[in-house]
Amino acid sequence: MNTNNNFYTVIYTTIVVVVVAAVLAFVSQSLKERQEANEKADTISQMLTAAQFGSKASFQKIGNSATIAKYLEEISEAYTVNVAGEKVAELPLDKVYSPKELKAQNRLIKNGGDAQIPVFVFKNGTTVLPIYGAGLWGPIWGYIAFGTDNSIIGAYFDHESETAGLGSRIKDDPEFQAQFKAQQPAFGESEIFAIVKGGAPKDASGADIVDNKIDAITGATMTSKGLDEAINAWLGAYSAHMKAQPNTVEE
């Protein structure tokens, strides 16, 4: 066969492309189950961190299986609600929402659609709610944990591509996330929560006048704004439910 003609080149290239595509498809399918398990365990570790059952680093250390087992040990119920605060459906206790699933619900929240958003309630009365939005360069998401009085007991946020050392601090800076503790979102109000430069205004003694404002990240205006908008949009969607159904601790 003449290996220098165009026909040979086309056939050879086609065969190579088909073989490479087949190999990549096989590898992708082979790794899919492991990737899904990693994503699920990572999501659960973020929820548990927000709920103060441990730190993200501690869950990474014990591994996927132990992290999921801890979650199943602590979770009491999971269900979805609509923006009217009505319970829509019970969820299996091992069901969590990936960022991709949160993105779909975020679109419905923003467009006034029939959003069905998840609520996760733990045996100690802690309720964890997810949030999702847009940062400077890509998606941002996270989990906010509430005590039985609807005050925040912890939060954990993540991102896809925020600027290292600036917007990435929503994930990397424990001091930023610590600001959320003991805050009391104003469910049902036009401004439920605020991330603003300087944080909450102070009284003469230096104490915060309000407890639903925290200090924005210096040098990360757009990421702070995006997180602020995401929190207000999602907590707004949860407002009716959170106001009408206070948590109770299992006996």
Describe the structure.
It is a single chain. The chain contains seven helices and eight strands, in the order αααββαββββααββα. The protein has about 250 residues and is an alpha+beta fold. The protein has a domain of about 170 residues. The strands form two sheets. The chain has a six-stranded antiparallel sheet with strand order 2-1-3-4-5-6, sandwiched between helices. The relative contact order is 0.12.
What would the keywords be for this entry?
globular, 6-stranded antiparallel sheet, two-stranded parallel sheet, single chain, 7 helices, disordered C terminus, 251 residues, alpha+beta
Order of helices and strands: HHHEEHEEEEHHEEH
Structural class: alpha+beta
Count every beta strand, where a strand is a DSSP E run of 2 or more residues: 8
Give the distance, in angstroms, between the N- and C-terminal Cα atoms.
81 Å
* Largest sheet descriptor: 6 strands, antiparallel
Shape: globular
